[in-house]
Amino acid sequence: MSRLRILAVMFSIVLVGTAAGSPLLCPKLPSGAQIRPENRYFDVLPRIVPADQESVIEIVPLFDHVRLREDCTYELTYAPMEAPPQKGGWAPGTKIPITAENGRGRIKMLFEGEQEHMFVIEQTCGDKRRSVIFHVYSLGPDLYALRPYKGDIHMHSHRSDGVESPPYVAGACRRAGLDFMALTDHHLYDTSIEAREAFAGLPIDLRIYPGEEVHTPDNPVHIVSFSANAGITELYRDDETTYRAEVAILMESLPPTPPHVNRFHYAACVWASARIRERGGLSMLCHPYWVTGNRYNVEEALLNYLFETEVFDALEMISGSDWESSHARDINAIQVARYQEERARGRRIAICGVSDTHWVEGSDDFGRYFTVCFAPSPDAADLIAAIKDQRSVAVEAPAGTLPRVYGPFRLVKYTMFLLREVFPQHDELCFEEGRLMIQYAAGDETAVDRLRALQGQTERLYDRYWTPVSVE
């Protein structure tokens, strides 16, 4: 067992007194996340710092039982996770004394490179010792300027084949720790507007965007429209004449398609994606390896050509699946492998992770399959730009188990840190807002005042985690 692991075990036992200090026994949030004991008892400010700059980190005990005492001694052991310091002068493994001031500890150092940094603080009070481990992440200037926003842009309500009402689904999204969402009922755009208008003017932080799962006539490919300013199904619901005429023109004008590619299906995809973009939205290819009728939903020849010609803005690489289905047939593993192969071919593939939830209260995928966008704000334009620019990752944690992150390597490493050190605290703050949104949707007007008191709390959390402490 490594020295750091031994210290972690010591912390769990000494701080709490029994093995009950294990993170596995901390309350689990609807997202499946759990706040580590260290992060229950201490604030680490900031948690995200600029790379290759000197920063001050404050260790702030939140309770008397963990405060730093002036009659005790403290030593810090520093361990960068990837590259050892070249300029800062702190050799890994070297113990540095820390002086407790007003119950807090301060660390001033140069955080070199873009990586995670680990600190072990050992407290000695007479003959008693205890240790605690803290984590900080340093980022390059481009990523440091952005914030991580969690979202799900593929889910259903009882207006199509789901169970709950649109407002209920929206409230449950915030309760599960999401910053943005889009309801995407089959053939329906108005239900996403219903979800948004149910909370119009209310003091909430969840961004509720329009959405729709588009099924163009005689085309097996499922397509999500995210944040378009109008629906697509309305263009052919009552009369398919214009749709079929425009697809026919496309079939004539498009370059020759490879053998075995259904030209109508391909042209219909091109038509739908173009209509979504015209309306300011993002088009996403849904679950291409979903099994229906004892076969994959999209024929391989068509799928190959869709990737080759980049018809869609994004790929739904991670699709929500219940625990039993994941064990029976893991379509996500196939979709991830396809993404990796396309990337190896040099193609730029924008990705999302979604739950495709149809029953939020009976699902072990809702809140556990999502997208993280790294963007300057949760505005739709910024989120869409982040996805298209490959500044998003797809996350899956079926049944709330160990999460897996997929996407560009740099973002995957960073997101794994966020899943441990930032998102659990974020999700806990979201929980009460989501609960009150559901309560309001049930007719409780008193929820509005309580929502107002909560507004902005996740933004304030991020401000604390990213705002530098004065070096002076």
Number of beta-strand segments: 21
> Could you give the order of strands across the largest sheet?
11-10-9-19-20-21
As a whole number of angstroms, the C-alpha radius of gyration is 25 Å
Instruction: Give a short account of the largest sheet.
Output: 6 strands, mixed
What would you say this structure looks like, in words?
This protein has 472 residues and is an alpha+beta fold. The protein folds into two domains: 3-145, Sandwich (Immunoglobulin-like), CATH 2.60.40.10; 147-458, Metal-dependent hydrolases (TIM Barrel, Alpha-Beta Barrel), CATH 3.20.20. Helices cover 34% and strands 24% of the residues. The protein has 15 helices and 21 strands. A six-stranded mixed sheet has the order 11-10-9-19-20-21, sandwiched between helices. It has a five-stranded mixed sheet with strand order 2-8-7-4-5. Strand 20 and strand 21 (404-406) form a beta hairpin. Helix 4 packs antiparallel against helix 13, helix 6 packs across helix 7 and helix 13 (423-441) runs antiparallel to helix 15. The chain is globular. The chain starts with a helix and ends in a 6-residue tail after the last helix.
